[in-house]
Design a protein that fits this description.
With 71 residues, this protein is α+β, with helices and mostly antiparallel strands. It has helices at 17-26, 33-53, 56-59; strands at 2-5, 11-14, 62-64, 67-69.
Length: 71
Amino acid sequence: MIFKQYDNGSCDIEFSWKERISILKKGKIHLSDEDLKHFGDNLIKIVLDWQLKFNENTQNLKTYSNKVDSK
């Protein structure tokens, strides 16, 4: 899987055909300890980068109990 982050802070997670077929067959994504480490490292990088890339309104959004406050 490849993380593709854009200048506005959004991100695509792109899967190879092999990964897509595996997800369809198994119905889940299993990450080994090593893969989970790399996945986590990529997520941390995205979190750090997005605060620099999001516009001010997006930076100030608050999330409560799975709901987004649009103020």
